[in-house]
TrEMBL record, chains A, B, C, D:
This is 4-hydroxy-tetrahydrodipicolinate reductase. PANTHER family: 4-HYDROXY-TETRAHYDRODIPICOLINATE REDUCTASE 1, CHLOROPLASTIC-RELATED (PTHR20836:SF0), DIHYDRODIPICOLINATE REDUCTASE (PTHR20836). It catalyses: (S)-2,3,4,5-tetrahydrodipicolinate + NAD(+) + H2O = (2S,4S)-4-hydroxy-2,3,4,5-tetrahydrodipicolinate + NADH + H(+); (S)-2,3,4,5-tetrahydrodipicolinate + NADP(+) + H2O = (2S,4S)-4-hydroxy-2,3,4,5-tetrahydrodipicolinate + NADPH + H(+). It comes from Rhodococcus rhodnii LMG 5362. Pathway: Amino-acid biosynthesis; L-lysine biosynthesis via DAP pathway; (S)-tetrahydrodipicolinate from L-aspartate: step 4/4. Pfam families: DapB_C (PF05173), DapB_N (PF01113). Homotetramer.
Length: 253, 253, 253, 253
């Protein structure tokens, strides 16, 4: 990493939420970043201007995030956004805002865990070389949905890669199945969801062909696992004007 | 292991079948065993007497195994049996035969892979100390049934151990499930069946409680994985008159 | 679990330390236990008598633990002790104290993580059935010692079990080794220590023989992983007068 | 895969060796390939011309491979080569031969297992995003060298990727190490070599940063695991005139 004469000036929106506090800690711990503003719902966004923030991190709420982004884009501040609720309409609105501020960059990502993003990318890249592929995702037992959102996306990317390469479905001679044993089918890819006390968030993609298997496993031990991805975004977003969706483009694979 | 002055004299029934040939090889490779008879369907059982076999290994067919056992028990020869099809009726018949030959031992086991037997035993022993338990079994894609027979038995043993200890079902907050994602329920224990080219036969029992997990995994790489269990049976059966069902009692855990 | 008419009355010594606070939380969360006293270094032990504590949990310091135990034993209170520093001299002193209070039980254990204890037990039980065994332990990179204490003990128990069964060393044809590649030798058992950011405390025992392997893996995700073992001790110690060393006897395997 | 009007005509050199026989079987099992010549040391290379072979597979010996390649290149036949012993001199000679036959393609690869190649590639791509990385390779106990050649190359590629990104060494606070516990250092990357009966050839790359880990594991179950990589080479080499070293360029990642 090249020498940085001046640290990047960072503001955190949603600074008193659980994730926001973690982001403040992460920014303060990074030598090349300076935390200049902690903003929560009762605080004025003007503080960002007064403190000369260069990049904001937004983990707030779908109800307020668009107002936040309008403000920062208009004031020439870049943004790294983990708030949920970005459908195509919202992304289109965001592109409109950015058209008027061609030097500003905004990164919106559904998942900032670098390992989750790399896992998906590697699984998709490998999928066409293997006869078989299945996904096992494993989470704590308080999770309401099965499969996880990440597993859905992983299976979708795998299925797409295999279709594009003309690879058929994974072979399966099962004729006698106890209901549910073979998992759920997401776009033709089998996904198994384990729920176990003691676990946090884990996923394994298994790929196999005659005589060999390849396994790509991601283990997320705590909520801080997205911090390195957010900081990567903070460091890179100034060099990427316009809208960037997902962490992938920054990984430069 | 104590010194053995004389090797044990072993006959193999079903000696020209795939498993039988493997058993002959395994006996020949063992310094403390001597292969004295290879019997297949056109060969006379009298050869066992003529060659003074002390123990037979029977991997034949449900149609002939009872005749084989009648012969060897009557001639005072011990038997280690991997042939399938032993229901309670057959075991009862066998107990009757052995009642008239109190010095003869017969071992009938559905699974001679020591690792499979140990896995089940350990899983059952650990099950009551953990809030959650699930089973993942992974096999080649030519397998017709899901879950595997071993996974059924493992889940059954786990469920029984938990009931006896008064432990309830594993916690699970799933409210939105894509059909099959959470696997099959075997006696209240979730079982997931993966089918993947490149795999052979594998099983993982996952146990979890607050802050920790325990995983017991068995990998069977080839058909020879039952050989050490059969040879253990051959060495021990003379010291165990009567009927022994399953390899467990010999493992002395 | 049978119905408990009255909760067990528990006192925690070292109640303001990190571990002590966690223990207080765990006791309060358990329906069959009642936290009656939180004692730290400036508090009088008499409180235990005044609050009619039946069992104490002691995670204090080697300098004070013996005084604590003298007091509770003399007052007929059982103890579950995780404080370190118990050599044979101290255990002997403790046995002496208990000789005068035959109804009191004290449990001293170096490791209360049930999974760690089960792993060691299972590894030792399986060790004599396999040609090969190696241990991989994986921890966060702030750990000063390699291998971990648990890995030392695991390897020692494995080596002892193999010696008693007359099993020789694991086969190894290595003739060209880059220094350190084959790990450390603990009592003839190879142990490999991985240090990796993102990990907490994990251990894998790999056992293998022709055609099959058995893996016993323990993952400890946070400091709370010892709580279930301590609570097990609290519930069982009244039924075990005298000194009990290690959690094993309570697991009833 | 697009429709192939005519199967590719394939000759196998070293056809009676263990690997060569496996290659013949693999070619015969592929619908889009036709095995037209099986050549071993006493057979004339002219057969390749007579049978109009388009591609040869060469798993022979360092002593004869250069003569084989001279012949096939001169006769306009492409080659996929797994024979060992290609140093820079030999590759240079090969480039010279190919300069005179600009339409011919030759692929020389040290490792045709697609999973091994993908593992190395993914590990190198991910290495700069993680604080820590270590390699565990696990093999059968008859292996003479530790670490394996694949582990050496994997560690080398990881080290290079980290140097290029300016990432320092993995953190390690070990101050008390039993000799060998922390593995071997290959170019600054720790490598651990497990040797265990029942295993074949396996490798795990572990990458970790605060709160998350990524694991890339490759399991090779039998000698046939290189077949899909060789067949991929056979299908693609006609479209890649000149010398290609390693399977990587064909994977198009």
């Amino acid at each position: 990493m090249s020498k940085v004469s001046e640290p990047i000036r960072v503001g955190v929106l949603g600074a008193r939420g659980k994730v926001g506090r973690a982001m403040c800690d992460a920014v303060e711990a990074a030598a090349d970043l300076e935390l200049v503003a902690r903003i929560d719902k009762d605080d004025a966004l003007d503080t960002l201007v007064a403190t000369q923030a260069q990049v904001v991190i937004d983990f707030t709420h779908p109800d307020v995030v668009m107002d936040n982004l309008r403000f920062v884009v208009e004031h020439g501040i870049h943004a790294v956004v983990g708030t949920t609720g970005f459908d195509e309409d919202r992304l289109e609105t965001l592109r409109g805002l950015l058209a008027d501020a061609p030097q500003v960059g905004v990164l919106v990502a559904p998942n900032f865990a670098i390992g989750a993003v790399l896992s998906m990318r590697f699984a998709a890249a490998a999928a066409r070389f293997y006869e078989s592929v299945e996904v096992i995702e494993l989470h704590h037992p308080h999770k309401a949905d099965a499969p996880s959102g990440t597993a859905y996306r992983t299976a979708g990317l795998i299925a797409q890669a295999r279709r594009e390469a003309g690879v058929g479905e994974s072979p399966d001679a099962t004729t006698a199945e106890l209901d549910g044993a073979r998992g759920a089918s997401v776009d033709g890819v089998r996904v198994h969801s384990v729920r176990l006390a003691g676990l946090i968030a884990h996923q394994e993609v298994l790929l196999g062909t005659e005589g060999e298997t390849l396994t790509i496993r991601h283990d997320s031990m705590d909520r801080m696992s997205f911090a390195p991805g957010v900081l990567l975004g903070v460091r890179e977003i100034a060099a990427r004007p316009g809208l960037t969706v997902g962490l992938d483009p920054l990984l430069d694979l």
